[in-house]
């Protein structure tokens, strides 16, 4: 008898999303499908490395935290994971095995959540989506809590007037892309306009 190969969490999640296109899925059911504690990381890999268009409350205002939806089976452009083990080890050593945002060390209780031990990740200083590379000078050690918020760090937000001025200066194609994104982000509100 030939032993059947067990499916990994990423494969299970991919299949589950593809079988539930357009359906809002919650974190409890996805955790159960994956069968591992790092299920959210597998979802990020599906989104970033395979291009699955999995949206969250950060992408659509009608989704609550912990809700996910795959809107189409057509993948978006994806990024390969390109950080070698050697580069990872170099960056961690260079950064003293501490988070470069909050200063906490690997394995310590996290100062912002004493129930969690600190886990370090390798994060991009300039994100790959903005042209950043997987090179040591563009990488830093960052803890999981800071990493969750790092993508939200920006300069001061522009005023409405400045933002509209920027959109007006953009090409017609870019303006249409912005409109599509806003309709996707605010589907209920866009129907009322």
Automatic annotation (TrEMBL):
CDD domains: HNHc. This is HNH endonuclease. Keywords: Endonuclease, Hydrolase, Nuclease. Residues 86-148 form the HNH nuclease domain. One of its GO terms (molecular function) is zinc ion binding.
């Amino acid at each position: 008898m030939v032993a059947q190969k067990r499916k990994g969490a990423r494969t299970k999640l991919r299949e589950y999303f593809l079988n539930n296109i357009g359906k809002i899925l919650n974190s409890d059911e996805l955790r159960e499908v994956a069968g591992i504690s790092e299920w959210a990381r597998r979802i990020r890999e599906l989104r970033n490395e395979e291009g699955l268009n999995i949206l969250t409350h950060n992408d659509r205002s009608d989704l609550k935290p912990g809700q996910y939806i795959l809107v189409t089976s057509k993948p978006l452009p994806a990024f390969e994971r390109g950080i070698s083990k050697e580069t990872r080890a170099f960056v961690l050593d260079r950064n003293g095995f501490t988070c470069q945002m909050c200063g906490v060390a690997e394995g310590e209780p996290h100062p912002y959540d004493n129930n969690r031990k600190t886990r370090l990740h390798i994060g991009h200083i300039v994100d790959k989506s903005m042209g950043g590379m997987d090179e040591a000078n563009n990488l830093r050690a960052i803890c999981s809590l800071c990493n969750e918020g790092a993508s939200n760090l920006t300069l001061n937000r522009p005023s409405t007037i400045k933002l509209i001025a920027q959109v007006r200066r953009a090409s017609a194609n870019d303006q249409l892309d912005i409109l599509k994104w806003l309709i996707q982000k605010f589907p209920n509100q866009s129907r009322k306009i």
